[in-house]
Amino acid sequence: MSSHASNRARVIPLRPVPAAREPLWRDVVGDVLRRERLAQERTLKDVAEAAQISVPYLSEVERGRKEASSEVLAAAARSLGLGLADVLSLAQGELARRSTTSRVSPVRASMGEVRLAA
């Protein structure tokens, strides 16, 4: 008695499937800065010079590789014609959007504001 079911191999994962992670703040802020820069059709060099930061550092911030200080974020925002509050508000909206599409608990939409502690 041969059966196709008995000839099938079972796949056993070597590692457990990782759970979805919440987006990191630096990734979200970097995405906002890059999106705003590209919307203005400006180069990394142009924005970095206006913000008085290095091109490689701005690139790292945009890619979420560096956790920029509030001074650097404010300078980058100003160079894009935005205030720091504008960048943080855009990032908060993006963070809320991403959180609702991941498997983690969604951010409550009623929060409506960003508060930073110094």
Task: Explain what the structure shows.
By secondary structure, this protein is mainly α. The protein has a domain at 25-95: 434 Repressor (Amino-terminal Domain) (Orthogonal Bundle), CATH 1.10.260.40. 53% of the residues lie in helices and 0% in strands. Helix 2 (25-39) crosses helix 6 and helix 3 (44-51) packs across helix 5. The radius of gyration is 21 Å and the shape is elongated. The N and C termini lie far apart (74 Å). 19% of the residues are buried. Residues 103-111 have low confidence and may be disordered.
What class would the helix/strand composition place it in? mainly alpha
Mean pLDDT: 83
- Please tell me how large the radius of gyration is: 21 Å
Strand-and-helix sequence, N→C? HHHHHH
Number of strands: 0
Portion in strands: under 5%
**What overall form do the CA principal axes indicate?**
elongated
Number of helices: 6
CATH architecture of the domain at 25-95: Orthogonal Bundle
End-to-end CA span: 74 Å
Proportion in helices: 40-55%
Q: Strand count, sense and closure of the main sheet? A: none
**Tell me, what is the CATH class of the domain at 25-95?**
Mainly Alpha
- CATH fold field value of the domain at 25-95: 434 Repressor (Amino-terminal Domain)
CATH superfamily placement of the domain at 25-95: lambda repressor-like DNA-binding domains
As residue ranges, the low-confidence spans are 103-111
